[in-house]
Amino acid sequence: MNDVTEVPLDIPAHVAAVSTGSCGAVVTFIGQVRDHDPDAAGQVTGLDYSAHPDAGRILAGIADRFRTEFPQVNLAVSHRIGHLDVGDLALVAAAASAHRGVAFDACERLVEAVKAEVPIWKKQYEVDGSHAWVGLA
C-alpha cells in the first residue's frame, strides 16, 4: 500500500497493512486539508492536487528506500490527488515496529521525504473564488 490515488484514503487499511503480532507500536501521520494558509488572503475552501505521471513510482521508491533503512519497521504511505475539500485526507502514512522510537522516527522521515521528493502540486482555492498554485519551487 504505497500509492498516489484519486480514491479517498483509508486510515484503517494503512494501519492493517503495517500491523503484525510482533509490533507493539503503530504510528500514523494524517495530513488533511486545512481552512487557512499563511500566504492566502482569505479562508481556504479546498485544494486540487495534481501529480506527475511518475509520482506513484517515486512514492513507492521512497517507501522501499525507507524499508531498507528501517528493516525492523513496516511502512505504508499514500497521497491523494484530485479535488479535496477542507477536512479531506491528503496524505496518510503508517509505521509499525516492536518499539515506538524507531516507528516515530521512520514515520516522520517518510512523510518529510514524500513531501520533498514526490512531484505533486496543489492549486489552492479561497472563499472569494480566487485560486493560486502553492508550494512550487
From TrEMBL:
One Pfam family hit: MoaE
Spans traversing the lipid bilayer: none
GO biological process, one term: Mo-molybdopterin cofactor biosynthetic process
Lineage: superkingdom: Bacteria
Residues making up the signal peptide according to the UniProt record: none
InterPro entries (UniProt xref): MoaE_sf, Mopterin_biosynth_MoaE
Name of the protein this chain belongs to: Molybdenum cofactor biosynthesis protein MoaE
Organism of this sequence: Cryobacterium fucosi
